[in-house]
Amino acid sequence: MAARGSRTPRRTRTEAERARLYAARTAWNAKTIRRRRRDTIVATVVGALVVVGAFVSQAVHAQVTLPEPTPAETSTPVQTPSPSPSTSSAPDATPTQTPSE
Length: 101
Hints:
Layout: H1 9-64
């Protein structure tokens, strides 16, 4: 008969298997946490670069397409041609009645 407190080989194997599975789960969990953290950092950096790129693009666009300057006032007045009356006959404003058949 085995002494009290001694372990059987089957129980020892079971505990070793449990310890191995526990170590594998904790390693996998730590790896997953590192991957998620890395993905979050990469996404944050890429998002910040997109925002900065959009800001720089708008600033460059605003500098390249400056508004056109307004014309300056001239010192001599320029006369605009006024419409002259034409010599052609204008149609009558009142309608004429034609006989109907």
